[in-house]
Amino acid sequence: MAKQRELVGAHSSHILGGDGTPVLIRHQQWKGLVLERKEIPIRAECGPQFSGMPVVIASQYSPGRRWYRCSGQTQEVPMVAPGIDTLGATYERDYGRWECDPGGETICLRLPPDIIQRYLQEDAYHFDLETKYSYRDDVLVKAIYALADEMQRDFPNGMLYAEGMSLMVVGWLARHHARKPAQPALQARVLSAVQQAKVRELVDTHLDSELSVERMAAEVGISPFHFSRLFRATFGVPPHRYVLQMRIARAAHLLRSQRQRTVADIALEVGFASQAHLTHAFKCHMGQTPARWRTA
Known about the structure:
This protein is of the alpha+beta class and 296 residues long. The chain has eleven helices and twelve strands. The chain has two domains: 6-176, Sandwich (Jelly Rolls), CATH 2.60.120.10; 184-296, Arc Repressor Mutant, subunit A, CATH 1.10.10.60.
């Protein structure tokens, strides 16, 4: 029986503090990059692993060696200290093995689709990292470790400062380490008619709940990263923009067909957090407020 795949880095232990919990925990209000601080095992091996999204691994190595097997071919991967690995969203390996001296650590940075979309906006559709092992990029290493330290100390300079650091990291990756765009023939791939129908039905029947990229991708059985690309090619807009358009369209219909209902009530039914949230989005897209639309 084939071994079940696990996320890259899942075999490594988190670095723990004096209370026994990981020293780097994502704050519940933090909406930026996803970071984990882990030990590099002295001796270890692991089975099949995959990235699932673009991943950056910044490491402070102790002397040692490592081997990866991908697509049936095993290669020894150099260990540069400090070093960077970048892995594309579809990266997979069959096997990995390490032999290192004690004291090494790594920071694993993951780039979920919603993070890429928020920072890169229209360019997010084409973004992915080139898969490369153990190369020097002192600017990137310094930035990732500085951001990790800021998060670990509970944002002493404020979340806005850390958000700026996140934007810098993503911008640097996009400029220096992004994979070249696919050929036009590959970019033209779209969701199938069945998948489109499933997405439309999900959005239409669940406008009042959270409709994340992950949830929509799960509905059609593909990865969130791949789904975001196919969705954009199919509908011409990113998933979050499509959901927003559907919410505004439903609100516009209800405002005139159910005039006895309050704007606040309609806002909640179509998935907005408040009347003010609906009013702002409605005015941006329709050119007038919900109240004016209702009486026009």
